[in-house]
Input
Amino acid sequence: MTESPLLKIAVDVSQTLLWIFTTPTGLLCLMVGWMLVFFVRFFKALKDRSLLLAASGKKSGLISGVSVLMDELVSVGVWMAANIPLLIGVVAILSVLVALSGTVAKVDEYLNLQQKIREYSLVLKNLERRYKVAKVKCVKQENGVTTLSIQYFDQNGNAVKGSQERIEINGQDIFIDALVVNFAYSGIESGEKRNLAVPYRVFSEKVAQKDGVPLKIASAGTVPFVYERAEYQILGMNKEAFDARLSELLAVARDAERARKAGMVRSVYGNAVHRVMTKDDVFFIWVEQSGGLTIKEEYVF
Amino acid sequence: MKKNRIMGGIRIWLVTILVLGAIASGITLYVKFQKEKLEKLKANITRLKEEHVPMRFMVESRGDGYVVAKVKLYDMDGNEIGVAKSTLKGESLFLDFVTVPLEKKYLTFPQAIFTDAVPAQNGIALFPLYDRNGFPQVFAAEGINDALKNDLSTLFSKVKQSGAVDGSFGSAVHDIKEFRAFDVDVVYRVIARLKGGLEIVEDDQ
Output
């Protein structure tokens, strides 16, 4: 609101008035000002009286000076008494101006804070956000071999049609390994960036990672999506969105250190979240906007 | 007539001052509430971005199919509490943690180190490195009280029995050789986030 020039002037004027009438320095300045005006008037009157006395052949002395001073004091007093309504009016107008600008300043502060609250709430919301990456279900467990059903989710949290896959692995503590890219907080806070997680391999407490099972979106021995362009539908994006995401990811992956130093990403690494599973156990893998992967239950209303 | 005009003027002035004063007072109260809210939001944002570093590590050397790694553990005040050094078969180094939900945050217990060629169960166990008579020294902090110490010890004993804590999960962070392996002689830190996520970044301290 203080952006309006008129209100800005009102606020400036009222702040000046408040400074003059409520601070010791202001009051001192006011008194000095009054004294200056009074002395100018007094010396002018004294000069006039001297000229008058000189014209009548008399000399001005201390008595005439005191007399002029008294005259001037009385004159100021009379002027003030005669203009009490005017003075009251001026004080009233000034007090309204001060109150108005004070209120305007408060409204302005309120609006600014409200805007800040909106911005910080959005930042917090963006930081607290998490995105579902995959649902892992133990469908069978026999002779130490676990059969899993894995379902992937798109950027909007919807299950990607046809992405479900079934894998078997020796062991019970199931590790779902993924490439994770955590972007700089500036991008996350503004909502421009989403941290990325691409699961590419399953292993267990008994099976070493390199002997693990590559996931459907992977081709054996490599990190998947980079080479499997034909499988772009698996991420539930259209080709343009997928290509854009892919080139973003590739740029980061190719020179993670440079991207980190440029403030584009915070970290690029592998993250295998794991949990001991028994038949019918289900868990969801999430990529957290504050950083990293987690296993959390799905919120059901 | 003149008196009425004066009284009218005074009335308008009084009402104006009162109304403006009331608005300003109301807004002042609300602004106080807004400021508190803003401070809370800022504190929550800071907490989400806060870095708890339970571990720093370094690959000391790397050969044909093996990795020599040195791992240091830290308490909540950043004091070093344990060191492990090991030569492991493999190329990618995995640092495994148990993440346990506690109220609105997550606690992270360093669990093991292994590699892409070593199954997790054959990795180097890290619990003994910070188990001080049942208390997980990684959560030691100045001013910690006995009740909290006991609670953490109880939690730690459950964590040591894999999967015994509701909502807990394991999280192994590692390098990916296809993209970029950990550089030799460079110190990295593992960052545990409030929401349970883990990150690895080059240590700039």
Observations:
- Residues 46-202 of chain B form one domain.
- Chain B has a mean pLDDT of 91.
- Chain B is about 35% helix and 35% strand.
